[in-house]
């Protein structure tokens, strides 16, 4: 008879962070709220948020990402995707406090793009992004060494998705690369390959799906042109020869929300709703994107549904808070909008920002106390800005 042995497993720092059981002072995530949160049951939360807003007046500007809860988004001065919001913040130099209802990397980008007198606040420091956390500065530096040893770093241009930490944006800035969004990934990659020259390559961080979908759909590459670099395996799990042959080196990262949609979700919804249009985000897996009728960024999804004719039917593969809001907004116009998957699929870290955290942040600011400020050190901010400026200058 065998006796079960205790498993000798040491959870990684990332796993602990995702489980909310560790602190990460370097990135300010995984920490408890440093103040007294109002009770979620307080019936006056909406009134308190309004009162605090009024006290702050034009000194305050509230940004709300599309994936935020309804209870929070109602207080946003502007809603949008991460890049639109960072630009909106930069366009309001009179606002002393930018309260960012989104996740950590978005607040970092806002801090980089705003002026020194503006302070960016994230109501809950635990609102990270699992995708951004899949590429750390140390892992990417190590990957660059692997590419150098394989003799390909000199012909590789790094491109990082907006959904990455300031450190990774700075890395691309330092190495001649750029940032991209899901709206301009095609232009960014076309630019990067032009910079890389003949037989050049792109290292795409951190979302393998956006990188692969753009390479295959927009740049006409074949699947075998892409390899996946796994930061948890020696040499990324690739041989120097595989690295030399590849055109796209995709980082092994993904979005935990969009990665959940499967080909089965598409097949099932087509059988359930005759004539349905399947509309998905390019962070979805390649087979889901290939089976969809339309693919596009969050802003593209909203625009398409806005322009859709009455009577049309849509199954949308993106975050559930947004899909529910769009379904409610367009139902009176006779547009039927459902969530692509049968199971609930919120972004858990986006959902960390709730009304109690927002009220606490606004009341603290109104009392003259700055809480949960997100700052990026000047050197990192400089090189991240270099990469962001290259994106803004894309042809
Ligand atoms: S939806 Fe995905 S990419 Fe966006 S914040 Fe959540 S985990 Fe990150």
TrEMBL record:
Catalyzes the condensation of iminoaspartate with dihydroxyacetone phosphate to form quinolinate. It is found in: Cytoplasm. It comes from Streptomyces marincola. The gene is nadA. This is Quinolinate synthase. The keyword Transferase applies. GO terms for biological process: 'de novo' NAD+ biosynthetic process from L-aspartate. Keywords: 4Fe-4S, Cytoplasm, Iron, Iron-sulfur, Metal-binding, Pyridine nucleotide biosynthesis, Transferase. Binds 1 [4Fe-4S] cluster per subunit. It is an enzyme of class 2 (transferase). Belongs to the quinolinate synthase family. Type 3 subfamily.
């Amino acid at each position: 008879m065998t006796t079960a042995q205790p498993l000798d497993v040491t959870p990684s720092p990332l796993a602990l962070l995702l489980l909310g059981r560790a602190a990460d002072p370097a990135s300010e995530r995984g920490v408890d709220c440093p103040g007294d949160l109002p009770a979620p049951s307080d019936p006056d939360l909406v009134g308190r948020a309004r009162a605090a807003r009024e006290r702050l007046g034009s000194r305050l500007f509230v940004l709300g990402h599309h994936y935020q809860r309804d209870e929070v988004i109602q207080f946003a001065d502007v809603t949008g995707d991460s890049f639109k919001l960072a630009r909106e913040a930069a366009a309001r130099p009179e606002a002393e406090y930018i309260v960012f209802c989104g996740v950590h990397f978005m607040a970092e980008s806002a801090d980089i793009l705003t002026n020194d007198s503006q302070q960016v606040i994230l109501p809950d420091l635990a609102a990270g992004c699992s995708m951004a956390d899949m590429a750390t500065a140390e892992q990417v530096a190590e990957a660059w060494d692997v590419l150098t040893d394989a003799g390909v770093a000199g012909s590789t241009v790094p491109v990082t998705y907006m959904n990455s930490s300031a450190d990774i944006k700075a890395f691309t800035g330092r190495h001649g690369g750029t940032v991209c969004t899901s709206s301009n990934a095609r232009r960014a990659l076309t630019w990067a390959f032009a910079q890389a020259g003949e037989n050049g390559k792109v290292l795409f961080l951190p979302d393998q799906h956006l990188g692969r979908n753009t390479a295959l759909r927009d740049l006409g590459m074949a699947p075998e042109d892409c390899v996946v670099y796994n930061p948890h395996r020696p040499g990324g799990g690739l041989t120097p020869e595989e690295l030399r042959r590849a055109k796209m080196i995709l980082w092994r990262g993904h979005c935990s929300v969009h990665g959940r949609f499967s080909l089965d979700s598409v097949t099932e919804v087509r059988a359930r709703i005759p004539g349905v249009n399947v509309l998905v985000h390019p962070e979805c897996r390649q087979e889901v994107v290939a089976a969809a009728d339309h693919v596009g960024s969050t802003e593209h999804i909203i625009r398409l549904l806005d322009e859709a004719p009455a009577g049309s039917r849509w199954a949308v593969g993106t975050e559930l808070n947004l899909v529910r809001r769009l379904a409610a907004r367009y139902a009176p116009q006779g547009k039927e909008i459902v969530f692509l998957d049968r199971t609930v699929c919120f972004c858990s870290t986006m959902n960390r920002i709730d009304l109690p955290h927002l009220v606490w942040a606004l009341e603290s600011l109104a009392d003259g106390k700055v809480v949960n400020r997100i700052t990026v050190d000047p050197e990192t901010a400089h090189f991240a800005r270099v990469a962001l400026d290259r994106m803004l200058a894309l042809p």
